[in-house]
Amino acid sequence: MMKYSPKTLTAGALLAIAPLTVTAAPLAAKTPAVKANRAAAAVAISPVSLAALPSFIDGVMAEQIATREVAGGVVTIVYKGKVLLSRGYGYANVDKRIPVDPARTLFRPGSVSKLFTWTALMQQVEQGKVDLDADVNTYLDYKIPALGSTPIRVRDLFQHTPGMSDIGGITAENVGKLVPYRDWMKAHIPARVWAPGTEISYSNYGAALAGYIVERVSGEPYPDYVEKHIFRPLGMMTTTFREPLTGAMRDHMATGYEVKDGRLLATPFEYYSLIMPAGSASATAPDMARFMLAMLNKGQLGTARILTPASVAFLESNSFANAPHLAGMAHGFMVHREAGPRLVGHGGNTQDFHSNLTIAPAADFGFFVSFTGGTGSYLGRTELSDAIIGKVFPQKPAPRWTGSEKRPPLGGYRSNRRDYAEAAQPEYDLKISMPADHIVTVENSGRKTSWEQVGPGLYELVTGARDGGPYDRLEFYGTNADPRLSFGSQPHVTYHFVKP
């Protein structure tokens, strides 16, 4: 799940993944129209950069473990149809001194799980069982209440524009508190806040709804469906949405941690089955590599095809953006950056695990990282991901802009992703100040970052930026009546100005 705010080395050899010969169900020819993105010519990666990656990542991970409360982590990188690197760091279990095994240790990818759900839903679109522009209620055995005359379309689920309030209480304290996710969803329908298709606000409920639609139209329980039609065809034999884990998967599951009094303390297994399709997966790095290889190969790995090339192109194509000049959502995937090359993927955070999957289709390159540890490992995950991108696809900072324009409204900005049934929590608002012309300071949960102007309403991150980037951006936009702020690294939300 995406969160509101953050709370020993083994090497794998270079290998090609040999998929099982199990095949997915035959797919019909129906494919959706794809919005055009910027031209995506093939991108070459410097052999020097590739050769330097292993030692570079070792150095970054040593820094993360020393400074970011990381108990253990895994990194896997794929390139041109092969696994380029697969390494484990730290411990899967600190108390027992069990090191992370990059081949066998399971991690919780959190909301990266949603990519399997969008894949499953696209299979239904291909087979003509689901229409992207149909009212979601068409496929449900309960009704999402209306707000005005515009229904929530299936398309709105893909692009996180259903206009729903966020909701909490999505985890169960223990296995005894678990109920079937379909029952929980029927009892916890979020409030409708704004018209669908008008504003991105990340929705765990919407993604879970997508999985339930798969279950309804396929006639198969969701965890059975993804195993039969995605995991087994790709040879992902150590990935599951089922909770609790059993057998070898349970035995090889990394332990979650929190930090108290400066020490890493083990936490109980987290149960996300209440919104299963949105984030309850457990997986190994080799399995995540198989999924990336299939997506980079236009839906096919070996003899197994899980999607048509047109469907993969649709998932990776632009759908909706909150800000005029920042990347937004693809269809299920998030757009991390538009060019140099275009990067799409998804982050994932549970309370104890922090993950990221990023692919560069034009470069035939992708990586998956996952950490377990304290809240600092949330930032560590982001820093490692940025370091890999900056090393492989370096960029230069944009020229500074010194033109004249009206200053943006300064003060508090509040995320549109929150539970509107509860009182707002001003302590989580962003605080925006302008210490000098063309420079803004963003304060979030006590952490301040500095941004320098690179265009009208556009600012680029300076604090903590590495040579080679990537360089995050923020944009002020909206109207006089509704000023807004968005970040390039957060295409799934927008921030509205809070009038004093």
UniProtKB/TrEMBL annotation:
It comes from Sphingomonas alpina. Pfam families: Beta-lactamase. Coiled coil: none annotated. Residues 1-24 form the signal peptide. The keyword Signal applies. SUPFAM superfamilies: beta-lactamase/transpeptidase-like. Residues 58-375 form the Beta-lactamase-related domain. The keyword Signal applies. InterPro entries: AmpC-like (IPR050491), Beta-lactam-related (IPR001466), Beta-lactam/transpept-like (IPR012338). This is Beta-lactamase family protein. Keywords: Signal.
